UniProtKB/TrEMBL annotation:
Repeat in keyword set: yes
Alphabetical list of InterPro entries matching this protein: PPR/CCM1_RNA-binding, PPR_rpt, TPR-like_helical_dom_sf
Ranges for the PPR repeats: 190-224, 225-259, 260-294, 295-329, 330-364, 365-399, 400-434, 435-469, 470-504, 505-539
Name listed for the protein in its UniProt record: Pentatricopeptide repeat-containing protein, mitochondrial
Keywords: Repeat
Stored SUPFAM superfamilies: HCP-like
Entry annotated with the keyword Repeat: yes
DNA sequence: CTAGGGTTAG
């Protein structure tokens, strides 16, 4: 019956007095019937016993401390500790808003109803989830509460507030102050408060405070539980104190509480964060012997780490292990494994994993489909790529701008320009955001397909549409111009790039160097090379190739060699540089120069790779007449068994173990005897 | 009650 009355009062509109905060002092009616008193007999009588008027304030009792719960056990005998939530909780909570008057609202409310909020009450409100979104309000409330006469916070209030502040990534200074206050007050530690504090401080990465709480626990005779250890470990790991975490781990192993799967996962995460994936693997392998079985989190943490390292084989290995052991495979693990295989060009394997994913009832997402489409297209199978594109749409997945970009790129590479343009138009008409990458894919395709004007139009459209053009876009159009022989347009765009503040890259230079050589502007090409080096741009194998091929074909083999020799000490010279030159010389029928180059490489004490020998041999065979004019040194090199006596790659038309010496033997009569 | 995580494109 009392309970029913309580409910009625809580829900009745008369209970809520609109605008009461504006009333400087509550003109309470004398019988007090509408007051929100907690419905206990003692409370009711105590308030009714006093006149509620200001001018008799000297007779007022001290404001009553409000507790969060009302003991109504007197009403329910069978259940002796029946606690009912106080109706004041809702009323106070309603006042807690992000407003400048919040604190004065609270004060006048309490003044009006002659109440003080007890330490338990404050702790209860701070601990209730309703404040979790407004940490600022919680903090103000906390500070307001301690202004009440005779009030002192309970430890729980600190702990709840710190929990709120840490879970919303607040300024650590505030928390530091609160921890200092806890320290000064000399509270008695309990196991639940210490756990919560250690978690909060761990999230914030406040290691000093974390360790203080740890010591404080020990002083209070609280033995850390497994949870406490794990919280501490995670706190240390999250703030990159992996070494300390490792020490805690070892202390655990030596003590009463053994590390569990969570402890292992935290430590493994720590090693991975440091990039020490191998060390993480060592721990992982050691788990089984300690009878702790890796779970999906252990595996995913490791797979993620190997993925970041680019070690996709290791990702696959761990994935296979998960399958064998029947560990649940999270969809993110599939994403990483399939993504890795696709990036390695192993699209068939990637597709197989995708299929087994489907068999396990796990649905692929846009990223997985995009990775597969891209990999199929790059592997030359646009048909299969487009099939997957249709399939993902059938499954109700919305291709995003990345998917479209991959599709456009694939269609371009396959020479299906019409379809690529169609796809691009679809994006434009259907609200798919067209970013620089998508533009660039099509500009590239149009350029490679000889539709330079269309490429140029698209490039200009980017500016109209306010899409910022990065170096990729410039490079695409510069390449289109250069390949079409419009070297002046290319150079003009290079200039414009500079004017518009877009940095030229090694690709920009490579395109131009190649284009200039093709136009026989050898000196200008060299100038670009030097400008690039001066700018501190690191050459790539492709840029070497463009330069050395240009120089070789314009008859400046020696100069090319010199440039390459100069760069060799910098350690950036690719092994393929001379190889490329030999290739290009052979292709141009300049076998003698190619052989000379080979001699030079031997003279430098370096080895000629098998495939280069093959190229040389084939060129020699095609040009027996050249052999006749070879000088003695080249002949001796050719006759040198250590140079030639190596199996020739099976990719040639020759059988695997055919040796040049035998070929040379056939033609010995052509040569003057050594 | 703790612990992992976001992938795809030029």
């Amino acid at each position: 019956m009392r309970k029913a009355t309580l409910t009625r009062i809580l829900s009745s509109s008369s209970y809520i007095i609109p605008g009461f905060v504006e009333i400087p002092f509550p003109p309470l009616n004398s019988h007090g019937g509408s007051l929100p008193f907690p419905l206990t007999a003692s409370r009711t009588s105590s308030v009714f016993a006093h006149p509620l008027s200001r001018n008799v304030s000297t007779f007022l009792p001290p404001p009553e401390w409000i507790e969060p719960f009302i003991d109504i056990s007197d009403l329910t005998i069978q259940n002796p500790r029946n606690l009912q939530s106080s109706p004041w909780i809702d009323r106070i909570t309603n006042l807690l808003q992000d407003s400048p008057t919040m604190e004065s609202d609270l004060s006048s409310f309490c003044h009006r109803f002659l109440i003080r909020l007890s330490p338990n009450f404050i702790a209860h409100v701070l601990g209730s989830t309703r404040l979790s979104k407004t940490t600022k309000v919680a903090f103000q409330f906390f500070r307001w509460a301690e202004k009440q006469k005779g009030y002192t916070h309970k430890l729980e209030s600190y702990v709840f507030l710190i929990d709120l502040l840490s879970s919303s990534a607040q300024d650590s200074e505030v928390i530091r102050t609160l921890v200092a206050e806890i320290r000064d007050r000399g509270f008695v530690m309990t196991s639940s408060t210490s756990n919560s504090l250690i978690r909060s401080l761990g999230v914030m990465g406040m290691v000093e405070e974390l360790l203080w709480v740890w010591r404080w626990m020990k002083e209070n005779g609280i033995e850390p539980s497994l949870y406490t250890y794990n919280f501490l470990m995670d706190g240390l790991v999250n703030s990159m104190f992996v070494d300390s975490a490792e020490q805690v781990f070892e202390a655990m192993e030596a003590g009463k509480i053994q590390p569990d799967i969570v402890t292992y996962n935290i430590l493994i995460k720590g090693y991975c964060k440091l990039g020490k994936t191998q060390k993480a693997m060592d721990r992982f392998r050691e788990m089984e012997s300690k009878h702790v079985h890796p779970d999906k989190i252990t595996y995913l943490t490791l797979i993620q780490s190997f993925y970041s390292d680019g070690d996709f084989d290791a990702c696959l290995g761990l994935y296979n292990e998960m399958e064998e052991k029947g560990v649940e495979i999270p969809s993110h693990a599939y994403s990483l494994v399939i993504g890795g295989l696709c990036r390695d060009g192993k699209v068939i394997e990637g597709y197989a994993v995708y299929e087994s994913m489907g068999r396990r009832g796990c649905k692929a997402n846009v990223a997985i489909y995009t990775a597969l489409i891209d990999s199929f297209a790059k592997g030359g199978d646009v048909e299969e790529a487009m099939k997957l594109f249709e399939k993902m749409k059938d499954e109700g997945l919305e291709p995003d701008e990345v998917t479209f970009s991959v599709v456009v790129n694939g269609l371009c590479k396959a020479g299906k320009m019409e379809k690529a343009v169609e796809c691009f138009k679809f994006c434009r008409e259907n609200g798919v955001p067209i970013n620089a990458v998508l533009y660039c894919s099509l500009i590239n395709g149009l350029g490679k397909g000889g539709m330079v004007d269309e490429a140029e139009r698209l490039f200009e459209e980017m500016e109209e549409k306010g899409c910022v053009r990065d170096s990729y876009c410039y490079n695409a159009l510069i390449d289109a111009f250069a390949k079409a022989g419009r070297i002046d347009s290319a150079l003009a765009l290079f200039k414009r790039m500079e004017d518009e503040g877009c940095d030229q890259t090694v690709y920009t230079y490579t395109i131009l160097i190649d284009g200039l050589f093709k136009k026989h502007k050898n000196e200008e090409a060299l100038k670009f090379w030097e400008a690039m080096i001066d700018k501190g741009i690191t050459p790539t194998p492709a840029s070497f190739r463009a330069l050395s091929m240009g120089l070789c074909l314009s008859g400046k083999v020696a100069r090319a060699c010199k440039i390459l020799d100069d760069l060799a000490p910098m350690g950036i010279l690719p092994d393929s540089a001379f190889e490329d030159m030999i290739n290009v010389l052979c292709k141009a029928g300049r076998v003698k120069e190619a052989c000379k180059l080979a001699d030079g490489i031997i003279d430098r004490g370096r080895e000629i790779p098998g495939r280069v020998r093959t190229v040389l041999i084939n060129a020699l065979r095609k040009a027996v007449s050249v052999i006749m004019h070879l000088d003695r040194k080249i002949i001796s090199v050719i006759h040198d068994k250590s140079f030639w006596d190596v199996p020739i790659p099976s990719s040639t038309s020759w059988r695997r173990h055919v040796r040049v010496s035998s070929f040379i033997h056939l033609d010995t009569w052509l040569l003057s005897p050594p």
